[in-house]
Fold these 2 entries.
Entry 1:
Amino acid sequence: MSSGEKRGWLSRLKAGLGKSSQKLTGGLTGLFTGKKKLDDATLDDLEDILIMADFGVPTAAKIVEQLRYGRHNKDITPEEVRQLIAGVIAETLKPVAQPIAINHSNTPHVLLMVGVNGSGKTTTIGKLARQFQQDGHSVMLAAGDTFRAAAIEQLAVWGERNNVPVIHKEAGADAASVAFEALQTARDQNVDVLMIDTAGRLQNKTHLMEELTKMIRVIEKFDDTAPHDTVLVLDATTGQNALSQVEVFQEAANISGIIMTKLDGTARGGVLIACAEKFGIPVHAIGVGETIDDLQPFNATDFAKSIAGTE
């Protein structure tokens, strides 16, 4: 990313996290008017603000403990509090900030894309396809969400837009057979990256798990090292419900990474911090808008400064 592109992304990130940042900084401003002593009551109120900003209880407690340890009963300004919060967030997120790495020794490198309906999964696949192409990789898509004709059509549109092949069957077809056909075709054509879409119906968790387990079994029979990445796409607007989604999909598909979308549409972006703290699963990328460039690799420091309002 050039310096100009970096500045453009940072401004989009800051704007995209504006609602989440305002939820936090608005509470801090109300709590710390001018300088204020950090007594126990103020620290309790601060912890409540952090929890209401979807940071999660462990992260909120960690931030409050750092303040208690270093600044208890001393004067402090809202800016100093924001700087400390940004530091703790960055420290929490840095271990999980890991981009997707395509391994060319895999033929193809298989990404199984999972997530509930409406999370932005199919759109994310389309955006990743373009970005992988820009990095010089050949790409193929597989429409494994066979329960929804609209999902198959949407993936086909992204295939046309990016000029990449899409393996699909009619709605209601067996998803595992779509995956197998795609794997064979991708290998025959020496495709670098194969992304497989999946159904995301949580209404019947047992059915979801059975279908994903079957698909993974078929993929492993074809290539015992695949899927090489199993990526969960999370919608930030769901707030703390995202944590239960991680648990469900971790049990069903042993996810290896997370992409969080729609951060621009919510004040609940703090849930990304709660996910990192609770699960420690790599966060590959985040999305703050509709365009291709609004999905970028996750950077812990940039995110921390944007959500804490220090940049």
Entry 2:
Amino acid sequence: MSASDLALVAGIIFVWGTLSARLERYDVTAPIIFVLAGLLLTHGPLAPLGFAPSHELVKALAEITLVLVLFSDASRVRVHDLRTDLGLCLRLLGIGLPLTIGLGLLLALSLFGGMSIWLALLVGAALAPTDAALGAGVMVNPAVPARIRRLLNIESGLNDGIATPVVLVAIAGAATAEHAASVGPGVAAAELALGVLAGVVVGGAGGFIVKVARRREWAAGGFAGSAVLALAICAYACALAVHGNGFIAAFVGGLAYGATGGELGERLVPYVEETGALVSLLVWLAFGAIAVVPALESLTWQAVLYAVLSLTVIRMVPVALALVGTRLGWTAVAFVGWFGPRGLASVVFALLALEDIGHSAEPAITVIAFTILLSVVAHGLTAGPLAHRYGPRIATTAGGPDDAAVQPLPARRLVRRAAPQDGSAGGR
């Protein structure tokens, strides 16, 4: 990135930071602003400025963002929250998520005749994870029962880590079909196992050391957060060093860190989350710069139909099947099914696929990119109104309304920042 590119990006972040609260009153979110900025800098009136992020930079941004999001999301898993609604969480993640991926795969194969099974799997898996931050109007609205908000938040935090292995295997399979020297699905599966091992060792040991150091006041307050940030990157890098999968290591490492670090370790996670939030702004900018226009130029009616079905039938039917017999009531089930925005994880998966597979991934990227754009608009516009209208109604079956603090995960929380910055709130 040139000095002029750096100045442009820094200026955009500065303007957003100073005007963010004002813009959010009109539901203008950070993803909207940074995607639009990427478009204007590369395909709009600002294109003569010559902004052109390199492929290496885009891939590096996507990778580091995914590492930080996976680690921080996993480390925020609270046993109390899971114990409260463990059955509902297991249903959504163990039944709803696989069904969503499977239906997405079948729909892609049926609508796009020339698409390989690997690219179809990529589309289904990349669009399965949800992003609660894009439905922040729901997450911060006390009219919606805290049980529902908590369920959406936990699902959002864990489903991207669970979908990541499927996405990576799909990318490996598609890349192998395109380039004979690429790593195949079998080797990718072995890398996943090594990634799990590296994550358990690095994250578990790191969490224990952090807890001991904090308890005995060995760690200076100004640097303790940096230690956790380094731990997330260390888990990723250690997995790569032993030819394992770094993303799985980051997710498992976050789980292990949360389990061994306890409350003392959790208080340091916001440092990782804030860094992830900053880097994610650059990912949305890169998405607008390199993915949106090519996707719109190659848009077909099949891609539009897939996007609409992905946000409705492909999401809502698996959720309904997963929650059968839970006594939440059909209004609450439909509410949970609709609020499955596609956001940061899907963007990162698309960018990684574009860099690793090349031009052959463009049909899949078109579908993923348009679905994300549609989700940003549709869920952003409906979050507040539907929360106000249906929140009190679903309270009768899902638990009474209350003002329990359930904020979108901080690593993605690009809208309506309301949580305190002491690390005591935020997460789940």
